[in-house]
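Single-chain item
Fold in token form
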Amino acid sequence: MKTTPEHNERVRTMKFYSVYPHYVSKVEKKGRTKEELHTVINWLTGFDDSKIQEMIDRKATFEDFFDEANLNPNAELIKGVICGYRIEEIDNELTKKCRYLDKLIDELARGRKMEKILRSN
């Protein structure tokens, strides 16, 4: 499934702070921790806990969030389908980065080992 311009615009303006509690809830419901969630976010973006909190406090959009991130070079190893989209086929860079994050959080919630989630070649 290809993303539409409308979908990409929705992703661009979505607020990180409004989605973050859902991330926490999703992983905790499956027995994982907020600390593990932060490990995953840190790996993908380079953000530490204080930067994650700053993004929440600023009510940053996903566009702001990923503009300030230093994407992990191994992020391109994240493949598969998430939210009905094959990550490798997404041509909008911001939408692809958001789906990277969604995929990592999904893997965390499904109980995948951290070493596998953090793709170390």
In short: The first strand starts at residue 81 and ends at 82. Strands lie at 81-82, 85-86. The chain has seven helices and two strands.
